[in-house]
Write a structure and sequence with these properties.
Blueprint: E1 45-47, H1 50-53, E2 58-60, E3 70-72, E4 86-89, E5 100-103, H2 113-124, H3 136-147, H4 152-165, H5 171-177, H6 184-192, H7 199-203, H8 209-224, H9 231-240, E6 245-249, H10 255-262, E7 275-277, H11 292-300, E8 308-312, H12 315-323, E9 328-332, H13 343-352, E10 364-366, H14 372-385, E11 399-400
Helix pairs in contact: 2-3, 2-8, 8-10
Amino acid sequence: FFASPPNMAYFSPQLPFGHFGAFGAPLTSYTVPSPYAAPTPTISSYTVPPVYAAPFASYTMAPPTYLAPSTFMAAPTTFGLSPATYVGANWGAPVTAKVGVLFDFDGTLGDTETPAMEVAYWELAPFIHNVPAEKLEDEKVSFIQNNAGRAFEHMIENLDEARAKDGLPGVEEARQSDVNEAALRVINEARARFGLPGVQEASGSYPSLLVQQKEETVTALGKCAQPNPGVIDMLKELKSLGVPFNIATTSGKPRVPVCVDACEMREFFPTDDHIHSGESDFTPSRFKPDPDVYLKAAAAERLPPQWCIAVEDSASGVGSAANAKIGLIVGYVGASHIPVEKKQSHAEMLMQGTKAKDGRGAEIVISDMMDLPSIVKAFQVATANGTKITFPSDLQGSIYLPPSK
């Protein structure tokens, strides 16, 4: 009966559990004054008194299907129902739960993984001692595939270990004196494509390679970041459905906000409060697969993690969502950093759960973002009923399910 005044619940003994208004707890009962009380099946419609009528003045009653929507804002146990927050439920239609969607950004919402990884690669290339200059472009492809979703700090650590095995100093020490001179021409040409200065000029401008990487990535992505295919239309649909969503990323600020602007996504993430960063929002930083950024993102929507969906393109991201006990993990393989011939193997990797403490992987992997709203609706129903999700059978893109599914 979406009517004034607020904090008022409407009760008719003919409606299951009572029919409660969408205006918040605590709920009390209200008996509609005669002659409006207890409509019989023979009555096709009745008019609510004007003071209660906004925004609708009449409701067609066609028992036993009750058409007026209801929202349960108090603890669901009050009504003897499964533990979920119920929104927009029509008697005669499936009851759905309020759930939220938590998105990774790089490689998921934004097709930024490839340019970001290229910038990182060309920053590390001067110190990759065992790859000749003419092979650097070829090596870049496997570097991007192997490091997508990982923090740059971890890439430096791996390179330091490889150099140490050959008796070479670490990257920061080598940065001052031990640059792969033969490769500089190739590296500088690649950096110029992103509007970045040459290696030697850049090294004198930043106190460390880590600082250089963060600032240069922001510069590059501000020019070339694009949304992944279907992302804008998918976000519009989630918004129209009233599904809350935000960003849960390892990447720092201002990098992700700059990308949100470049991708023209500000209507969906109007302030940086909708962007949660493992790097920037914690001291010390908490990178995926640590669960912290997902726990923070879920709390921001005032939802328990098990009522949320995580959407991820990397093993570390899936691990983070699993470690946070997110209710459903959806993998994504539609970004440009995953070539067509690698989508199957990448999807299998996301479902393996190698970075999760309990070995949990993605429950489904999609290639088309426009399939996500249908999955969200199925999760709403499953969460409301306390049942296992049944994935829709009419999804548009290629999907991948674990063998047990």
